[in-house]
Amino acid sequence: MIGYSHSDRKRAIKIPTSLTPDLAELMGIIVGDGHITLKRNKKYEIVIVGHITEDKEYHLFRVCDLFRSLFNLQYIPQIFREDMALRGIDVSSKAIVTFLVEKMGLIPGDKMQAENLVPKIIFNSSSEIKAAFIRGVADTDFTLRFRKRKTVKLPFHYDPFIDGHFGNKQFSYDLLEIIQSLGIVAYLAIRKKEKEGKIFTGYHVIASGKRNLQKWMETICFNNYKHTTKYDIWDTYGFCPPYTT
Length: 245
Prior knowledge:
By secondary structure, the protein is an alpha+beta fold.
């Protein structure tokens, strides 16, 4: 049951009645770069973080707009940590948090060891819903870059490479399964790194090559400007220099 706080009622918070592409995309954003705190009768909070400059327009003109259109949330506090080059948005709402956790299946707390980060409702939905969820994750937790090829003597960074790096094994395999179901040729690369005497395992969900990028833009696309501007440069000129802003 969705519980409304006094603040929810005062702000006229509304709850969606069905799973739409916009809701699926927001769920992907929260799974990607968000954190849900759910402490019964104490704290109900969603924090989504990003780079202080690279994600500014994305937060203001996409993420905040999704909260407004889906939940009628008009004011969203901004978080800044200039010393860490981080920015974020902070949503406090009992109704929104309980809806996303209890009805949509999002996981509160630590995501590193959590199972089923991809909610079952996403797996059981249409390709459009799956694509929207992946778009939310990719806009926050994937990189799009362009590489040179050693076998091709061209001075340009022209070869597309989409890469999502995660520490949660099951989540990585679930993302891979969904992306492949959308007709994109993707694979998983497992890489180990030693730090301070401990071995850390990273899981990279990767789709590379021109055909894959074009298929990605047709089926999933991006809504984050830090990705779309790189794509626009590549699509116009046939290459995109590294370290662009």
